[in-house]
Amino acid sequence: MVERESHMAALHELLQSATKGRGRVALISGAVASGKTELLESFTEQAIEEAALLLDATGSRAERSLPFGILRKIFDHPSISPQVRSDAIRLLDEASVEAAPHARMRAMPFASWALLQLAREQTVVIAIDDVHCADDHSLQFLLYLARRVRQARILIVLTESTRLRQEQLAFHAELLRQPHCTRVQVGMLSPKGTASVLAGHFAPSMASRLAAECHDITGGNPLLLRALLEDCQGAERGEPFQRVAPAETFSQAVRDCLHRGEPEMLTVARGVAVLGDASSTALLSRVLEIHAESAEHGIQDLSRCAVLDGGTFRDTSARDAVLAATPADTLSSLHLRAAHLLHKDGASALDVARHLLAARQEVAPEMVPVLQEAAEYALVDDDTEFALRCLELAHGACQVGATRAEIKAKLVSVVWRSCPAAAEKHLPQLTAELEPGRLPRRYLAMSMSYLAWSGRLDDAVESVRELQSRTERSRTEQEPGHDEAALEAARRWLAMISPPLQSVFPDSGISRATTQGGACGTVGDAHTQAASAISASLADGRAETAVAEAQRVLQRYRLSDSTLQPLVFALLALLYADRADLALAWCERLLSECSARRAPAWHALLSAVRAEIALRQGDLPGAAHHARSAMSLISLQSWGVLIALPLSTLIQAETAMGRHEEAMALLEQPVPAALFRTLPGLHYLRARGRSHLATGRYHAALEDFLACGRLMEEWGVDSAELVPWRIDAAEAWLALGEAGQARSLAERQPLRGGSGTSRTRGAQLLVLARTADLKRRLHLLKEAVEILENGDDRLQLAAALGELGNGFRALGEFNRARLLVRKAWHVAKACGAEPLCQQLMPGDADGEVSVAGQADVSREAEALTEAESRVAVLAAHGHTNREIATKLYVTVSTVEQHLTRIYRKLKVKRRRDLPSKLAESSLAGIA
């Protein structure tokens, strides 16, 4: 190192001067752990090699009260004759008595004479390390001796800290006043010096690469640098060296560095570690309960030895080392004091809360609002763990009352967003908080939703009944309407989740929503409005109202703990109203927002809805993917009764893709008993029935479908868009060879507005066609295809096209039949429905239909414009108008206009009559 070589050269020059009889004094100054001792040791080793007599001693704060402690150590050297040593010790003992100043005047000349006599025979080097820790008597002697060595073969070398005690300042000034005294300033290593040290441990290229980072971490402190190198080399022996990583050796070096300095240094380091920085000396001194001057001195010392840089620790591992070595009770007291002082000074709630949490003690009640505010800020940053700790601490500090109940409700919501199963342990206590005037109204419906989710429907009902009873008894003492709106929201939500509860809450069911048009949504509660949207979507002739209600919820409320479930059921309301396109757009938006949040439960629930949307659009691989993703985000225990959503979707998707073993394995998953009392439970019953139907268990399938129907009729939610149980049961009757039973059930399927939605009406016509003669069958199938072409369910469309193709084959119209079957195969293939593909074209159908990749769609379509060609190809592949508009980024009206021109140019009347080459053309490059 350049710095060390320069210092060694300067000291060696002084030694040469002393050897020639011109005594010298060297004062080596530097911060703690700057390398003063190492420099002194290296120099004294060199002096010994050059035949100098070394008399050395080290100052100690523990021995500072021992008079002449340094001088006694010097006279313990074996080179001093026993008689001289004995006389010197006797005189020093006499001089140590405070009342004997005359004795000191005898002791110091004698000691000085003895040392000067030694120097007559050989060069004497007197080396005192940490002279700033020496006792006052020894300092007086060193000054006495320094004045007398100028013509002697003596070199006095002293090391001292950069910060001196008041009594040392005079010694320091008097010493430097001597003309033969030289001061050697030892600073921290420069970046170049750091690189030089690294060059002795690593290859040149690696040393160069690591130098800057090592210097940033250690500030050039030799003690810290050596420790860091040990950690790095230890890691390198275990595995290939990748990066500088301070470890235990470095941490111990930081602690050693602090203990070497003055006591204030360690104290201030602890304060800075607790506060995070030393930007405010006043605050630091108040937290540590020391004088501001002492705090300032401590900061200066820590900065000089490079532990601090700009008032903060250079590296977090140094701060962690200080905190780890601080006694727990001391650390707790510092954090608690810091919290109260920061709060008094108007610091942010987050800063105060961090100290309250770090204190690990109970807090005063006045700190509860601070913790609540900090939790809200933490949730904005998605730091759920910090928010949860704040709420738990605040809850423990609260007395029974409204604030405690509010905190518990918030705490449950925070736990729930990460793991609903973990939130269940809080539900009994939350239920106990449900009393008038205790739980704020905005949390009532949310709390009921958590109870319902966990399957505790009876507990939820009992809680609402008790609340309603108490509210009625104390209504005269309450603000008018204060609790009624909240109670209504809770009742409506429970009756929506579990339709059997409509008998418990007769004024909160489907009938009220139907007659009042969802007017309850005007109270501004997301749960009430979402329940209204579901109710409208399941009522005959109210699809438009349902869509409007659902979109009002989706537009009005942002994604949060209290609005997640209402937003999810608003999406389901859109699905039940046959608006999968709207549901998809909103669901994708919410998933995009959710992806950046640390809320697995949110993401899981929205993914389950996304899976249901994909299933209803005929995207079987997509449905399976989203459902599996949903089930992987949280444990199965966390799903509660809503496990029915992803599980039923996945079962149906696997069944339709021909993966029957996977579907059966999913059916073996245990589900809560309360599931069959809920709306989502109907999805599960249907999925189980579809699996039974596909695997030949027709009676079991029929039983599930009819059970589903009985429940839906009993609950007043007999909507085909929820579960088309009559159509499903009709298919089971057909499989059993009971065409009459099938036709009777299918004909009794209620249709909204007389015609029904595209999915329901198309599926009904498809089943009815299977029970009719050929002529009637073709008529029904044509109508089904026309309806399904304008809808979203491409899987139903594929089935209808295939049936229609088979019908034309039966009539002998083979070309037309081949065209329709090929179209059906393409659509089924895009849906991932392999069983249907095999049914349409048994064997290896790929070779027969894969004429994709043609540059022009066909010679028949040469008259089409580029835009018309894209629309024509997509239409020929079975895409609906909505899907084409989405893929090509145009409006549905534009697609309809293009299709009108396409039909005219190709001389066809409908999309199923589009030329076969169009259906075989590649979709690559389109949208």
Automatic annotation (TrEMBL):
- Span of domain HTH luxR-type: 857-922
Keyword ATP-binding listed? The answer is yes
Spans through the membrane: none
Q: Which SMART domains match?
A: HTH_LUXR (SM00421)
Q: Keywords assigned by UniProt? A: ATP-binding, Nucleotide-binding
Superkingdom per UniProt? Bacteria
Output the Pfam families linked to this UniProt entry. AAA_16, GerE
Protein known as? AAA family ATPase
